[in-house]
Amino acid sequence: WGSNYVVHVDFGCDNANITGNAIYALGSDYVYGINIYSQNFIIEKNNVIVESDVSYACGINPDAGASGVVNNNIVTAVGLGTVYGIYSGMWDSASPLTVNYTNNDVYARGFFGCGIELGGSKENVVGNTITAEGNYTYGIVASIRDNGTISGNTIKSVGSNVGSEATGDSLLPKNSMGLSVKG
Fold first, then answer.
1. In this structure, are residues 49 and 25 in contact, taking their beta carbons and an 8 Å threshold?
2. pTM confidence score
3. What is the pLDDT, as a whole number, of residue 12?
């Protein structure tokens, strides 16, 4: 796959607790800080830094079927291509995704820089500070299927919007925005 994972937790490890870590991942393509498939997980008080010198970087990635909380983390994702501070995997009816994101400090800088993208069935984003910088930038992009809350966040999205390259993400149009909710 060519992916670089620093922390990867699979379904067999429910109730995972990832707390108080300094996590740094540097790579060229598909660099992840935390990629989690666990039920009832806690990701809390971590400093996560991911850097890609070529393409894709993602700080924290709860994937389809995961449930838990992401609280009080500092997440920095930097790359030349598509960058997500936090990206939740798209779900289907067999693999719902339910996560609460609270009081995180998220920074994403890349050609396509996205602070938080949500694709779960019920996700809540409350009290986070989110900064996205680059060419096309997005603070929060959400396609929440059933129910969710986006409240009390501070969002800064600074984009230059130069060129016509596609973003490669169906939820990210070729512009910059603070908040986009679909679904």
1. yes
2. 0.89
3. 58
